[in-house]
Design brief:
Layout lengths: L2 E3 H8 L3 H9 L7 E3 L2 E5 L1 H14 L4 H5 L12 H30 L9 H16 L3
Antiparallel strand pairs: 1-3, 2-3
Length: 136
């Protein structure tokens, strides 16, 4: 099994050494030994880091991502959860597209003031409803 030094892994993956140490501390990745004081990782760790990055991009927490790896580090991707996440992203894309279109309209609106623009008023009402839905 080919081992790679933490510095080399950091350089190739774009993940800082401190983040690699943190990921190891919380159990997301495992070093397979040391060369002096430097941690050594196996080749599979680069794949794990790519999956961690993808999971973060999809909005999963590090704890969620940790649950997506078996004890040996191989991925166990929860298909049902991935479908739910994809559906949530679809909804977010639709919402952001509507917001983008509304902002373009407001920026180009011929009304003398934004407060006279019906579309701007609808946008404000939407923002107010969204804000009250997301209060914790």
């Amino acid at each position: 099994m080919k081992r790679v030094d933490i510095g080399v892994l950091s350089e190739k993956s774009g993940v800082s050494p401190s983040t690699l140490r943190y990921y190891e501390e919380i159990g997301l990745i495992q070093s397979v030994g040391r060369h002096g004081l430097r941690r050594q990782f196996d080749a599979q760790t680069a794949t794990q880091l790519a999956l961690i990055s993808l999971g973060k991009m999809a909005g999963f927490s590090l704890e969620d991502i940790k649950g997506m790896f078996a004890k040996d580090g191989s991925p166990r991707l929860p298909r049902a959860e991935l479908h739910l996440r994809a559906d949530a992203l679809d909804q977010q894309i639709r919402d952001l597209s509507r917001l983008r279109d509304a902002l373009h309209h407001v920026a180009d609106c011929p009304a003398e003031t934004h407060m006279e623009c019906p579309k701007f008023k609808r946008l404000m009402n939407f923002a107010a409803r969204t804000n009250t839905r997301h209060k914790v």
